[in-house]
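Each record in this resource describes a single protein on a pair of labelled lines. An example record follows, reproduced without changes.
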Amino acid sequence: MTTPPSQPSGTPGEAAPTPLQRADSGHSRIEESRMWNVVSYLITGPAMFGAIGWGLDSWLGTSWLVMVGILGGMALSLYLVWFRYGTQ
């Protein structure tokens, strides 16, 4: 047994609201996508540069480049977020 699809509220013939019009938390989809971009920058930077530091550590026989890579990746990520979204 299936249930019929729900009808949009309003007068007959009125178009259903778009995703931007029915944002649940008051944020538009564009703002939500920007927030996820910021999160991805903050995770990817230290992970990528930390992995590069780990590879250089194993290749050169050192043990401090992982930390330099993680800190450098976080600094670069924060700068990129500030440059891209903080100046608007």
